[in-house]
């Protein structure tokens, strides 16, 4: 069993479950990944940040927030040789379907959305699904409310559309009051990740929570789209004892999720579905559906869209061939019926 400074590691998010996993190892010094670069890392041991490299024998892809074990060589260079099994991880898939780890060992995801031109309820629901699929508690943070006249109306739309179990707060990232607003989620030992598009105030909010001075940028005139000032994920320490992971803006996100994860993010639909006349109701056109009419129509459309995405991602090549063949038959039947009516 390795020895480690519990008090120091608690400053970077050490919890009892992580401590138990560290205790399973008998070699190395513990640290947390603060940033990941192409061939190197930055680690934090609770006392300081320092550069490191992954050992050639390490067969793992590292992400910000990971707990690792390292050794020093004769030149005092840190080499990471072990990845401690993460409690959870935020993952997305690229255009080729390859899994990309974004962050690990996260307690809360701050889903940041501007009330200006960034306002997009469908994208917010996608982020919510990603957080739920990774066993991360979501908190909606609405920003830019001082820039538009209909901020209250838009904030009310968020509250009306999402389940009441999801906390929704409004904050001005550049003001000290934002730290007070988020205090319930920034206590000692907590790890947060900021998710949202560029220009919504993620880096500004990180500066407010940590007292750091990351570069921040404005938005382009005309579409309120942000300029990328954060180009890589990084971990920072908050004054209240929490850690926060800032991320670059993400406009598209193919989640690494399944149908259960979609249903968990749309649990209001799942609850109402229990009262549908048919147990296999798809909430499209079946009679006796308890969902249609009770759920916002656009939210229901987004639910179906995300279901199609995760089913397509999970389908094998043979499944896709069979699905295409099924639709060919259906289209042929539809054309035949149309011709018969002429």
Account of the 3D structure:
- With 342 residues, the chain is α/β, with parallel strands linked by helices.
- It folds into three domains: 6-83, Nucleic acid-binding proteins (OB fold (Dihydrolipoamide Acetyltransferase, E2P), Beta Barrel); 89-254, 3-Layer(aba) Sandwich (Rossmann fold); 257-340, Ribonucleotide Reductase Protein R1, domain 1, CATH 1.10.40.
- The chain has helices at residues 6-10, 16-22, 121-133, 151-161, 177-181, 202-210, 259-265, 267-273, 297-314, 317-340; strands spanning 29-36, 41-44, 49-54, 67-72, 78-83, 89-93, 99-104, 108-114, 137-143, 168-170, 191-195, 234-237, 243-246, 254-255.
- The strands form three sheets. A six-stranded mixed sheet has the order 10-9-8-11-13-12, sandwiched between helices. Strands 1-2-3-5-4 form a five-stranded mixed barrel.
- The radius of gyration is 23 Å and the shape is globular.
- The termini are far apart.
- Mean pLDDT is 87; it is low at 215-231.
């Amino acid at each position: 069993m390795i020895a480690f400074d519990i008090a120091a590691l608690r400053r970077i998010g050490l919890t009892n479950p992580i401590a138990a996993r560290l205790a399973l190892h008998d070699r190395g010094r513990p640290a947390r990944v603060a940033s990941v670069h192409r061939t190197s890392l930055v680690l934090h041991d609770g006392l300081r940040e320092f550069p490191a490299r992954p050992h050639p024998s390490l067969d793992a892809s590292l992400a910000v927030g990971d707990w690792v074990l390292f050794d020093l060589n004769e030149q005092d260079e840190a080499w990471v040789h072990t990845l401690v099994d993460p409690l959870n991880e935020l993952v997305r898939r690229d255009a080729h379907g390859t899994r990309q780890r974004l962050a690990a060992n996260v307690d809360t995801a701050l889903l940041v959305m501007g009330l200006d031109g960034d306002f997009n309820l469908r994208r917010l629901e996608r982020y919510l699904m990603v957080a739920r699929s990774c066993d991360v508690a979501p908190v909606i943070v609405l920003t830019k409310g001082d820039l538009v006249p209909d901020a209250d109306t838009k904030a009310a739309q968020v509250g009306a559309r999402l389940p009441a179990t999801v906390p929704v707060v409004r904050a001005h990232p550049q003001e000290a009051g934002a730290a007070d607003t988020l205090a319930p989620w920034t206590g000692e030992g907590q790890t947060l990740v900021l998710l949202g598009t560029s220009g919504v105030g993620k880096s500004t909010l990180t500066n407010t929570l940590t007292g750091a001075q990351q570069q921040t940028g404005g938005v382009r005139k005309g579409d309120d789209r942000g300029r990328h000032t954060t180009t890589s994920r990084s971990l920072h320490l908050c004054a209240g004892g929490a850690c926060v992971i800032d991320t670059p803006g993400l406009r598209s996100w193919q989640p690494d999720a399944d149908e259960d994860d979609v249903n968990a993010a749309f649990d209001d639909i799942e609850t109402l579905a229990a009262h549908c006349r048919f147990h296999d109701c798809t909430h499209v056109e079946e009679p006796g559906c308890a969902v249609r009419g009770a759920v916002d129509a656009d939210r229901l459309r987004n639910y179906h869209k995300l279901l199609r995405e995760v089913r397509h991602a999970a389908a094998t090549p043979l499944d896709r061939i069979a699905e295409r063949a099924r639709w060919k038959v259906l289209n042929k039947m539809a054309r035949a019926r149309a011709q018969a009516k002429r």
